[in-house]
Amino acid sequence: MTLSPNQAADTLQALAATERRSAHAYGYLQASPDLILWGVLWVVGYGLTDVWPRRAAAIWIAIITIGLIAGFLIEFRAARRIDAHTTAAAGSTRHDAAAHAHWMFSSIAMIASVFIAAALLVLAPVSGRQIGAFVPLVVAAGYALLGLWRGLRFIAVGAALAVLTLGGFFLLPRHFDLWMAAVGGGALVLGGLWLRRA
Amino acid sequence: LEQPDAVIHQPIRLKIMAALKALPRGERLEFVRLRAIVNATEGNLGAHITTLESAGYVQVAKDFNGKRPRTRVWLSEPGRRALAEYIAYLRAIVDADQERI
Description:
With about 200 residues, chain A is mainly alpha-helical. Chain A is about 85% helix and about 0% strand. In chain A, helix 2 (about 55-90) packs antiparallel against helix 3, helix 4 packs antiparallel against helix 5 and helix 5 (about 150-170) packs antiparallel against helix 6 (about 175-195). Chain B contains five helices and three strands, in the order ααβααββα. The chains are: A mainly alpha (about 200), B alpha+beta (about 100).
């Protein structure tokens, strides 16, 4: 049972491909709840903004606060589950790299929020519609960038989100918030379900 | 070169090990997801997992997720070491060939 160099090289390639597929599937599964969460929040947030446009700031402060708290809870629960498995396997209490990775994703969400707030201060948009389009475009770019490392499905989600946002912004300016509630939020929920099935 | 580990050498079992290695330590992979990743039939995958479990390379937990039965698999520490040794074995073959060229 000796392998030729070609067989060994082919086996190494097959191993790397399987590891990559598995890592991507795992990343999709981890990201899925966040997408669904934010999809639902967008439906509520943009929907309420469409009804009460003058209260948009208060609505979105509440939506973002709820989203960040819920996101942290989702990540914290996942990290605790992994730590419990690791502790059971190792027979001692120790933190796992995955737990840190979950906190990293949450930290990225916080950094992105600060970046968006700073960008809005500098750019000083003149309409709520501009803000309503800018944030989803940043989120779309984030998913597309994530996809370069974590799998093509993230790129597809980012691209779909960007196209739908721009479509609503330019083609349906009067009903942009309603569009983003139904189509933007809906796309995020569907994207999350699609990632879960990967 | 030494002989490769016969348990891991089988292609489907090697894929199972690689798929599990990609997970963070402490994380478990559901049977249905593993089946999609390694592209194996249910019976085939089950038989190979049993072989790997008997060798001590993977661990299996069966429980219920709500009312749905669930089987989850993860790589044991001996399994992780065995896979690392197998990969080193493959690299040694490739490197030896490249040195000869």
